[in-house]
Amino acid sequence: MGQFVDLTSSDGGVVPAWVAEPDGAPRGAVVVLQEIFGVNAHIRAVADRFAARGYLAVAPALFHRVQPGVELGYAPQDMEAGFALKTAVDALPGEGILPDIQAAIDLAAARSGAKVGIVGFCWGGLMTWRAACALNGLSAAVSYYGGGITGPEEIARQPRCPVLAHFGHRDHWIPIEGVQAFSQAHPEVPVHVYEADHGFNCDQRGSYDEASAMAARDRTLAFFDKHLG
Q1: Backbone dihedral angles phi then psi of residue 156, each to the nearest 5 degrees
Q2: 142 strand-pairing partners
Q3: How far apart are CA 12 and CA 227, in angstroms?
């Protein structure tokens, strides 16, 4: 079981993060980036599962700069609130929340003494891609249905570490044409498309697809084993 700790970003901002530590020496570390619903029970469970597999996991609260203590569910009103918070974060000046993600990477490296990967879901999948292209100290990155990742501005970015990407074929938020464009522009990125909808990894959502989630999990773990070992 994990606990919240405070991170201090390079600009002096203090941001909470859920930290889950494994039994024994970590085999690596993973930063877990939230959906638009905050560091809720699902994201904490994802971090805890990484810890159970031997990784130190850090899940920073990426909405903290605009609203502390966000923990939403998956009802329509939660989605509306999450979109509003995401929009507010997108409007932050300068580097926005990238310093908070860097602080999570730095903490993960310091506490584990090992290589650090990053994984994110939905909006967190987009921030994972940006982190892989802009931040220091990452050895691997995995994006799940990264909202916005398939637009021209994001496709133009170049990753600084190995990246793996998961998408759903029935995802109405991310058209398959955009996925194909991303894949063609980045042949170095393994792209897996599942017969599933947006959010297929989250067992608290109606779009959860167990077969797709398990296949993506196995690929993600194999990717981290390869690059963080």
Answers
A1: -70, -15
A2: 119, 164
A3: 31
Nearest to 186 by CA among 125, 129, 102: 129
What architecture is the 3-228 domain classified under in CATH? 3-Layer(aba) Sandwich (3.40)
Q: Rounded CA gap, 52 and 184, in Å?
A: 36
Please identify every residue annotated as catalytic: 122, 171, 198
By three-state DSSP, how is residue 6 classified? strand
Tokens standing for 146?
């990264």
What length is written for the chain? Answer: 229
**Helix 98-112 / helix 123-134 crossing angle, nearest 10 deg:** 70
In terms of DSSP bridges, do strands 55-60 and 14-20 run parallel, antiparallel, or are they unpaired?
Answer: antiparallel
Q: How far apart are CA 40 and CA 69, in angstroms?
A: 10
Please list the pLDDT of the chain residue by residue as tens digits (229 residues).
799 999 999 999 999 999 999 999 999 999 999 999 999 999 999 999 999 999 999 999 999 999 999 999 999 999 999 999 999 999 999 999 999 999 999 999 999 999 999 999 999 999 999 999 999 999 999 999 998 999 999 999 999 999 999 999 999 999 999 999 999 999 999 999 999 999 999 888 888 989 999 999 999 999 999 999 8
Burial zone of 154 (CB within 10 Å; 0-12 exposed, 13-18 middle, 19+ buried): middle
Q: Please state, in angstroms and rounded to a whole number, the distance separating the CA atoms of residues 98 and 11.
A: 11
Q: In what order do the strands lie in the sheet with 14-20?
A: 3-8, 14-20, 55-60, 28-33, 116-121, 140-144, 163-168, 191-194
* Cα(24)–Cα(208) distance, integer angstroms: 32
